[in-house]
Design brief:
single chain; antifreeze activity; 3 helices; 94 residues; two-stranded parallel sheet; Antifreeze_1; 78% helix; mainly alpha; antifreeze protein
């Protein structure tokens, strides 16, 4: 019985590690582009850019880019918290 429990724990830990690696890869791929016009936004979108911020004024564009970066960081933090909860649940089950 203990042997199968250990196997389950190892599988869960491996799955969590894979999920964390996938999240990190997504974060690394996340880029924010600030564009000067709708035509440029369209071109950026074709290039695989995740977020294209359209703002004619440079200060507004910088603020929008910072807000998008903060949203990405918040998503990463929530994913890390979920992984920690799952790890705690596994530890509590033993």
């Amino acid at each position: 019985m203990r042997h199968t429990l250990r196997q389950q724990q190892q599988q869960q830990q491996q799955q969590q590690q894979q999920q964390q690696q996938q999240q990190q890869q997504k974060q690394m791929n996340f880029r924010i582009e600030v564009c000067a016009g709708p035509g440029i936004c369209d071109e950026l979108g074709k290039g695989g850019v995740v977020a294209a911020v359209h703002a004619p004024h440079p200060a507004a564009a910088a603020a929008a880019a910072a807000a998008a970066a903060a949203a990405a960081a918040a998503a990463a933090a929530s994913a890390a918290a979920a992984a920690a909860k799952a790890a705690a649940a596994v530890a509590a089950a033993t």
